[in-house]
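Q: Give me a protein?
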Amino acid sequence: MSDPSPGPTMGEIIARRLSRRDLMRGPLAAAALSALGLSPAQTAQADTPPAGAFDFPELAAGVDATHHVAEGYAAEILLRWGDPLFPDSPPFDPQNQSAAAQARQFGYNNDFVGFIPLGEGRGLLVVNHEYTNVELMFPGLGAINRRSGPVALSPAQVAVEMAAHGGSVVEIVREGGRWRPVLGSPYTRRITAETPMTLTGPAAGHPRLQTDEDRSGRQVRGMINNCSGGVTPWGTWLSGEENIHYYFLGQLPEGHAEARNAALYGMGTPLYGWGREHPRFDLARTPHEPNRFGWVVEIDPHDPLSIPKKRTALGRMKHEGAAGLVNRDGRYVVYLGDDERFEHVYRFVSEGRVDPADRAANRDLLDAGTLSVARFDADGTGRWLPLVHGEGGLDAAAGFASQAEVLIETRRAARCVGATRMDRPEDIEANPATNRVYVMLTGNPGRKPEETDPANPRARNLFGHIIEIIPEGGDHAQARFRWEVLVRCGLPESGATFSTATTPDGYFGMPDNCAVDSRGRLWISTDGNSRRSTGRADGLWAIETEGPRRGTSRHFFRVPVGAELCGPCFTPDDETLFVAVQHPGESDDPAAPSTYETPATRWPDFAEGCPPRPAVVALTRKGGGRIG
């Protein structure tokens, strides 16, 4: 609903928000300099200092059938779909897949990657397996347009799909400068769409989480479409369930108690036919089952027998990530993005404080705290609006009978309190070195001119932008914050605002995941460049956030055509950067859907009779040393 009160004109907003730094870059630069009586040469020395935060030779942008990394660096595949994880894992046989084999092998599309050190040169790699591309997994299906609806698969193929979802915990060791998985490690674990889990926190046990299979409303099988996530200081893995609507068949009739909620989360647009084999994924038969998904899952990688917990206090949405940090008062703060057009940015602040000396004391820290949603105001300030039952209109009159219902319907609660609707909030990371927070907004082609606002300033936003949040007083639990647009992404002709020091290879669009290294430097991975005709594949860019070179982007790594880059994750010494390559071989052309038989790309793991496989890649400096 639009605000009927008079507000500033767009011209006033632009004047208010455009600083000199914004004015001096992008397509407005030449006109602005002319109006000031200056030439680009007169400002070059001030705006383009000789040295920056990154010293790697910039990689050329482009699109081809393999991956590339900056000169002087190595890119080595560490784990691929189907690789064995246990001593008894069967060898990968793409022509004869089975659910039993897949449950003992590395899963399919890998998004979030986290690293938990175990000592010098050893650690646990935790990886989300977001979703499956059946047209690239199963031979003989032919060309498939995945957006046209569920593909008719056999029960055995559905079982393979379900086993390929979830996540993996893998011990890795570095020997001779190269990382390898440790087969037989006591930590190794596969989590799938069938793994038993527990619902915890304020919504656990609520009637809207109860089903015929689980009358308690506290036990659920599996996690699905797990996108990005985080690693906590006490060594657990947070995994966010994202596009849960893809898995549920059918629609609820108008007037059904769950119809409004189901529609708000996109139910009725499935890509998977699991509901044909499993009643829990059929809305008509199990209408409460979707409410049991869309949560942040906490997993203990140190204990392969532990039961994963779905932490309902962090809200139900299409979670892109769950990255956090310890606030200066000891409370744990998690930043969350709801990855869909016109959705919101969230923050959770724990009630209790992190105990660095007692790992067990933090076990249920994420079950109690305050979830808030962001409002970005035109003057460059913002406010975190609590999503607390009984406050801000979140009461019985608005259809919320309890805090549990606020959390089950987090999206509707955010709209009720007046949060800003954003251009696809994806990964959000806090920089411990500066206390600033970076929000990846991938884009929103559906935003109309009359729907623009200061935090989402472009209509038909094809290329996305990045927002920087500055907590008041550096305190991440404060209600107020300041904000700026760090950069509008894309090519210069699209209205991008990278610094003038950015080369043509440094432009990128569709920011998705991000990482902050130990030196406080920001790295951005992308999803969708080739689909937007940018003349470049997706990949990884380093971007400067401080000083006169703020907004300068530099290209480091790129993936094969059709692939998406996810999961940038550094080891604590910055000597290895793990990245995840999803769906290599997927077609970007809806008129020519990808197929198993004719993959669109061949990169180093290609073998005859098998399409390119999603993989985790380890990036290192040749001869050793820190990345970048």
